[in-house]
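User: tokens in, sequence out, please.
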């Protein structure tokens, strides 16, 4: 939903005292095709009127939830959530649990012959040894090179012989528990959360969230989806995750922040077992423009949304959890 009164941030960036060595651009083109491949899939879904982060869970076999690694129990994050959700729905898998080929073997089972896996991605940065040595010789700072690595996962439904603990059906969250869980999370954040008026928005300047009362929603569960969307914006305040929220309405910066909040709400809802039906289709055109202009935009938005969802869910589960992939 809307954000208003967005101030320009004036925080000065730290100036590095050491000069930076020229980065080697070799290998950059090899990564571009991977970004284009995933971005193309997301654009195709949006152009067809389907939102990859609002899945038709009731029409699928799997319980709503976040995709996890069956061997380590670690949840996946960022763009991989969207890719694995899409596969669960498209193929009708009964679980959100995934393994690599080697993990299936280590668990005493195997991937069935002829099964097609799902490509997911791992992004990081590294400094080649030659660049490190050159930087030391020249007295400059070596530049880290970003890379994107693809690997393949298989749903546990594609495997045979796995331990029962890996393939048993996870318990479904009872409907009566969903709303209290969301209410508890909202209260635990300590956010200035105002239920009043006809509009939902977050004000960075005054740092408060406003949402209409639940009675104003045709489907009451969507009150929570909207509340978590606005709290997704709230996480971006300069005293929290410090995202750029200065973009005026209609700008690409504004659309990018709306995409982050939309994904953050979807991830948080899935983690709480909430099945909303609302989708903010009014931003569809702006999101398509952002993705067409930058093939890395969906990766960045999904990464920031995972951070926002984790920030919110820490109030629901203050003990914390496993590191994400």
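Assistant: Sequence out:
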């Amino acid at each position: 939903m809307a954000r208003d009164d967005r101030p320009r941030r004036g925080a000065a960036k730290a100036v590095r005292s050491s000069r930076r060595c020229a980065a080697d651009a070799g290998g950059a083109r090899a990564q571009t095709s991977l970004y284009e491949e995933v971005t193309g899939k997301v654009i195709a879904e949006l152009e067809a009127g389907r939102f990859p982060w609002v899945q038709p869970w009731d029409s699928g076999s799997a319980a709503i939830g976040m995709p996890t690694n069956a061997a380590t129990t670690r949840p996946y994050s960022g763009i991989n959530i969207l890719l694995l959700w899409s596969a669960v729905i498209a193929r009708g898998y009964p679980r959100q649990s995934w393994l690599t080929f080697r993990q299936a073997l280590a668990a005493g089972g195997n991937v069935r012959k002829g099964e097609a896996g799902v490509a997911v991605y791992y992004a990081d940065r590294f400094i080649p040894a030659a660049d490190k040595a050159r930087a030391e010789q020249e007295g400059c700072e070596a530049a880290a090179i970003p890379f994107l690595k693809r690997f393949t996962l298989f749903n546990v439904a594609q495997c045979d012989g796995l331990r029962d603990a890996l393939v048993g059906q996870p318990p479904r969250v009872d409907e009566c528990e969903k709303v209290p869980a969301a209410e508890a999370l909202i209260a635990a954040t300590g956010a200035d959360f105002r239920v009043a008026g006809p509009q939902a928005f977050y004000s960075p300047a005054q740092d408060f969230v406003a949402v209409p009362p639940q009675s104003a929603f045709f489907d009451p569960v969507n009150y929570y989806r909207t509340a978590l969307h606005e709290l997704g914006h709230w996480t971006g305040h300069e005293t929290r995750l410090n995202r750029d929220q200065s973009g005026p309405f209609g700008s690409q910066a504004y659309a990018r922040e709306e995409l982050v909040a939309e994904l953050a709400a979807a991830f948080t809802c899935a983690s709480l077992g909430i099945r909303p039906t609302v989708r903010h289709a009014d931003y569809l055109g702006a999101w398509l423009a952002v993705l067409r202009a930058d093939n890395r935009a969906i990766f960045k938005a999904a990464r920031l949304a995972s951070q926002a969802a984790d920030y919110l869910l820490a109030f629901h589960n203050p003990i914390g959890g496993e590191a994400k992939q």
